[in-house]
Amino acid sequence: MKQKTKKAAKKRFSFSSKGKVQRRHIGQAHFNSRSTGEDGRRKHGAESVDSTDLDRIVRLLPYK
Question: Cystine design at 43: which of 11, 12, 25, 47 (Cβ 3.0–4.6 Å)?
Fold first, then answer.
């Protein structure tokens, strides 16, 4: 039987071209005017997921 993809995980995580799991930086949703420009630029782009969480996330995304 086919395994279902967790839709919440599909929206939050993506895979790089080399197969690494990526996520957004935290603290981007609101209150960004308080942070410095350097802090905002640091949050651009995606960040790799830590290796301790990798197995759980890959299990939620079976066909990636």
Answer: 25
d(CA 61, CA 23): 14
DSSP state of 61: -
3-class DSSP assignment, residue 64: coil
Instruction: Please calculate the CA angle 16-22-28 and round it to the nearest 5 degrees.
Output: 135
pTM of this structure: 0.78
Convert 10-55 into a string of H (helix), E (strand) and C (coil): HHHCEECCCCCEEEECCCCCCCCCCCCHHHHHHCCCEEECCHHHHH
Class of domain 7-60: few secondary structures
Q: CB–CB of 7/64 below 8 Å?
A: no
pLDDT in tens, 9-26: 999 999 999 999 999 999
